[in-house]
Amino acid sequence: xxxxxxxxxxxxxFVVKNEKGETILVTxxxxxxxxxxxxxxxxxxxxxxxIYCLGCSWKGSPKSLRSHTHKKKY
Length: 74
Ligand SMILES: [Zn+2]
Hints:
Layout: E1 14-18, E2 23-28, E3 34-36, E4 46-53, E5 59-60
Antiparallel strand pairs: 1-2, 1-4, 2-3, 4-5
The structure holds zinc ion.
Zinc ion binds at residues 6, 8-9, 11, 53, 55-56, 58.
């Protein structure tokens, strides 16, 4: 399945945070499912409602990635 990209910098790697401020690396599929990049990571205790882009300062909900899909491509 395809991964969704950041609306600002177009990369597909994000992090999510837990209450302790710890982060893990994730990607978001077309079905808005958050999956860990490293198989050993667990999403337990992490807030999946806000994702943070790894490449720029963008953050938002996984669903807000959708608004980018009709961007004009050259
Ligand atoms: Zn970005």
